[in-house]
Amino acid sequence: MAGALPRPHRDDLRIAVGGLAGGVLFWALGTHPRPASDPMVLWHPGWAPLVPLLVTVACEPLRRVRPRTGLLFGTAALALDTVTEGSLVTVVLYTDLVYAAVLYGTAAAARRVPWITGVCTVLGGVVPATLWRDPRGLLIGVGIGVVAFAPAATGWVVRDHRDAAEAARLRAEQTALLAEMDRAQAVTAERARVARELHDLVANHLSAIAIHSTAALSIGDPETSRAALAVVRENSVAGLAEMRRLIGVLRDGGGDREPAASPTLDGLAALVAAARAGGLDVRLDAAHTEVPTPVDLAAYRIVQESLTNALKHGGAGRVDVALRQHDGALDIRVTSPHRPGDGPRAPGSGSGLTGMRERAALLGGRFEAGPEGGSWAVRAVLPLTGGDLT
């Protein structure tokens, strides 16, 4: 039901029962802070101290669920207790209500209660001492400080530590969440990297195998078929070696093997020679110095994939491969004959352009591919500094 009072905590009920038992016991034994003859005792019936005691006991179950309400009624009960013979248990229970109001109340109440009780403590000591012109009037302020300000300050300290612990727990959870997100992103990035490597090293060799095996089956000339089968065998062996290299890297978790085993621009001449053996008329024009390892691998793979696409999709004519290093970047350009409408000579997955674009993007570079006049042009600009060069 909306607005229903939450169930009190069992410990609060135990405090209430214990306080009631102790207060009744003290009353039955006649143990009171003030004698009936005290001028401040304005309500003289013997049972009078039980009334503020019962009100304070009734407020204890509210210390967590309605701390402000409990404090307001408890304050009224304490004021009533001061005009009776009094009960020490009522005062003790009231200090607990002040403590609970700061600890379990709203943030505004947690700030206000210590401030209000502090002001009351000062005024409660200074005003009587000034009016009575008796330093003993300061003891009233001391009493208010013990009953109200001290528990309020204690509640503030405990609450501050509790909030700090909660903030630390939330930070730990956020750190764990961020770490999990970083781990997931790292796994995704590694999967994408492996996918690119698998595509680049397999597509080139299998495309050549598919094209030359088709030629061997469709041409009746034994010498031509023998040459085509030689190319098929060469690409099969090279593809198998590449697969073994990549599997070894994956099994060993990378380590120091991958950089040494990864292809580099120094192998462009062999790559071009293999493309020529596969039937492409390739011209290589490379003018570059030593480049960072990630750029080295990305550039090699982009040229390799471009030659693979030229083998699968290009028409008759020359393929030009040009590499230039200038303005802190490596410029790669591969042009091949392009005739719209011709189908590919070997099946493809369509992920080659995506892989090249991803490689350039990871290094903070640019990638473009598309028809240009009567040719298909691939251009990548890879910066030699910045990007993902770690």
Descriptive terms for the model:
single chain, 390 residues, alpha+beta, Heat Shock Protein 90, 2 domains, 5-stranded mixed beta sheet, 63% helix
Q: What is the count of DSSP helices, taking H or I runs of 4+ residues?
A: 11
Distance between the termini: 61 Å
Taking pLDDT < 50 over at least 5 consecutive residues as the criterion, the unreliable ranges are 254-260
What about the largest sheet?
Answer: 5 strands, mixed
Helical percentage? 55-70%
Largest beta sheet: strand ordering: 1-2-3-5-4
Q: What's the gyration radius in Å?
A: 43 Å
Structure summary, number of beta strands: 5
Structural class: alpha+beta
Query: Shape, please?
Result: rod-shaped
Give, in order, the helices and strands: HHHHHHHHHEHEEHEE
Number of domains: 2
Mean pLDDT: 83
Beta content comes to 5-15%
Oligomeric form: single chain
